[in-house]
Amino acid sequence: MSNREIIAVEADESGTPDFYVMRQAEVNPRVKDKRKISILWRTELNHLLERNDLPKYKEKSKLFVQEKLLEKVLREILVKRFSKDSHEDARQGA
């Protein structure tokens, strides 16, 4: 769902960097939402719950929270938020 492309750079005849799109991004049909959400920490799941205006489910298991997110949040929104949050965390060194 993200707009990530593979961009390559080569030097042209004058030695100036020449950037070009090597390959457009594609959706991976083998991605399983249940598997993808299972790798998140509980704090990351809580963040997704909060951003989607869902209850915190403090007394419930991590598996219960994962299933609720998959059930209550549209896949497109969940994937978009998951990707955005993951990239923000990586930039911040979390």
Question: What would the keywords be for this entry?
Answer:
94 residues; 4 helices; elongated; 48% helix; two-stranded antiparallel sheet
Major sheet: order of its strands? Answer: 1-2
Low confidence ranges: none
Mean pLDDT across every amino acid position: 83
Helix content: 40-55%
- The sequence of SSEs as H and E is EEHHHH
Distance between the terminal alpha carbons, to the nearest Å?
23 Å
Count of DSSP H/I helices = 4
DSSP summary, beta strand count: 2
Q: What would you call the shape?
A: elongated
What is the CA-based Rg, rounded?
18 Å
- Assign the structural class, choosing from mainly alpha, mainly beta, alpha/beta, alpha+beta, or little secondary structure: alpha+beta
Which helices and strands, and how do they pair?
Blueprint: E1 6-11, E2 17-23, H1 33-38, H2 42-51, H3 62-72, H4 75-92
Antiparallel strand pairs: 1-2
Helix pairs in contact: 2-3
Would you write up a description of this structure?
The chain is of the alpha+beta class and 94 residues long. 48% of the residues lie in helices and 14% in strands. It contains four helices and two strands; from the N terminus they run E-E-H-H-H-H. It has a two-stranded antiparallel ribbon with strand order 1-2. Strand 1 and strand 2 form a beta hairpin. Helix 2 runs parallel beside helix 3. It is elongated, with a radius of gyration of 18 Å. The two termini are 23 Å apart. The mean pLDDT is 83.
